[in-house]
Amino acid sequence: MNRTLNRLGELVGTGRGAGLLVGVTLLTLFAVRGLLFPGMGGDEGEQLVFSQYFDWGYQVRNPPLFTWLVIAISKAIGTNVYSVITIKFAALILSYFFLWKSAQIILDDDRLAALVAVSPLALYYVAWDSIYGYSHSVLVMAFYMATLWLVVRIAEIPRTRDFIWLGLVIGGGLLSKYVFVLFLVALLSAIALDRSFRQNLFRPPLLMSLVIATLVLMPHLVWLVQNVENPTGGTVDSNSIKSLLRLLLAIVGFLSPLWLILVILFPTAVKTRPISSDRRWARLLELYFLILCGAAVIAILTLQMDRLRTHYLFILLPMIIYFFLRIKTVIAPLPRLQLYGGIITVFAAVSALGMMIKFAGEPLKCSRCQHHIPYADLANELSGAGFDRGTIFAYWHPDPIAGNLRVWFTDSRVISAKHPKVQPPLNDRKGQCLLVWPLTNNDVGRGATIAMANRYLGTSIAENTPGRQVDAPLVMGNGKRTGLGYILIEPGQGTCR
């Protein structure tokens, strides 16, 4: 068994082998995700709702770059699941690539850099959870890694073109997810505290980088100022203490199970400091992590921020390079490194196989099966019931109906009750009004959907208006059925038309 793992590890211990492993794994996951699963989750469906029109912002909670990319790619390949997951998988590929390029410079060892590059395949939130969840968090991860690569390049040899690229990448990161600010502050602060780094980075061209980033961000920043609500602060209380504990658990959770594999295979690296030639890089990464943790603690204690969820911690990806600096110090035996590469290869295979098992097995135990809902069949049923085109207003819980239906009604405006103010422009033609909600035991969706349509779309639908139903067999559901409740108004009312 060890011989097989060592052989696999030998293959991935090169840049070409690492690239092949990552590429084949992501291509397989892309195909499985796109071809097998008929439904999209909340983040993916949300993007298809927002991408119906261009704006400088859509929601205060997240910036708009992911949506802009969906708009662009939809013009080329149409409105479907691929217009969302193509961007996600491209971001994953770039994240692995720039992690590898950064590791090449910092570690100055091609074998170790290749092993760093494949290591995220053993991070649950990167290799598994991000495949069918998240959008902004995956996109910003690519900008984290691109920024890190440019910064370490500049720290070695400052070039004007790298400063230009740094400005564009910082602007893109800020347009991907606001937590990029924390990443940037932590990284630049760590550099400022080390003379050997700041003398190359903190030069006049850095001002040019910040100006470029500001110009890239400015239109959205104006939109944000016009739409943001006043933040509220807080004081330390038991909830803050619980939030600190959740932060610690989130850090451990994000780095799992990779951290455990590394500790078991390279136990001496835990207590050994990097050699003198690598100490400056280790010190930089240590400062980066300390500043990140300090900022998170301050935010929790002063602002009572308790939304520091595990998937926000893609910001910790450079921790992999740091641990390999320690592995380099102990001069790990080649068979142990090969064994590690083999184990990562197994994790890659498990993630691909696991996605297929999820498709076949999840409907046997889940109650809603969000990714198995047959939206094509349900859309056909709604068309058969008389809906042609107009405005679809869909309730959002527990299933993201709006984005999924947009795939099948591309000529209609689709509005989600979760973001009722995000409304594509009306056209001049008269259309129908279709209110849709998931069928649940308490039928809460019907009343809430009617009330919100009356409030945000200017309809005048009576609260006791009865709804009709459509249903279809759940994909791989072994006889289970799922359905939607709906009200069809023809012609439409208010701006629901």
- Amount of helix: 55-70%
Q: What order do the helices and strands follow?
A: HHHHHHHHHHHHHHHHHHHEHEEHEE
Radius of gyration: 25 Å
Write down the domain tally.
2
Instruction: Report how far apart the termini are.
Output: 64 Å
Spatial strand order of the main sheet:
2-1-3-5-4
| Largest sheet features | 5 strands, mixed
Q: On the 0-100 scale, what is the average pLDDT?
A: 91
Report the β-strand fraction as a percent range.
5-15%
Which structural class best describes the helix and strand composition? alpha/beta
Specify the number of helices.
Answer: 21
Which regions have little confidence, pLDDT < 50, spanning 5+ residues? 231-238
**Which overall shape is indicated by the principal axes computed on the Cα atoms?**
globular
Key traits:
6% strand, 497 residues, alpha/beta, 2 domains, 61% helix, five-stranded mixed β-sheet, 5 strands, globular
Protein model, in words:
This protein is of the alpha/beta class and 497 residues long. It folds into two domains: 2-361, no CATH class; 370-489. The chain has helices at residues 2-12, 15-35, 42-50, 65-77, 82-107, 110-118, 124-132, 136-156, 160-174, 180-192, 195-201, 204-227, 238-254, 258-265, 267-270, 276-303, 319-329, 334-361, 375-384, 401-406, 444-456; strands at 390-394, 413-416, 432-438, 468-473, 481-489. The chain has a five-stranded mixed sheet with strand order 2-1-3-5-4, sandwiched between helices. Helix 1 (2-12) packs across helix 18 (334-361). It is globular, with a radius of gyration of 25 Å. It starts with a helix and ends in an 8-residue tail after the last strand. Mean pLDDT is 91; it is low at 231-238.
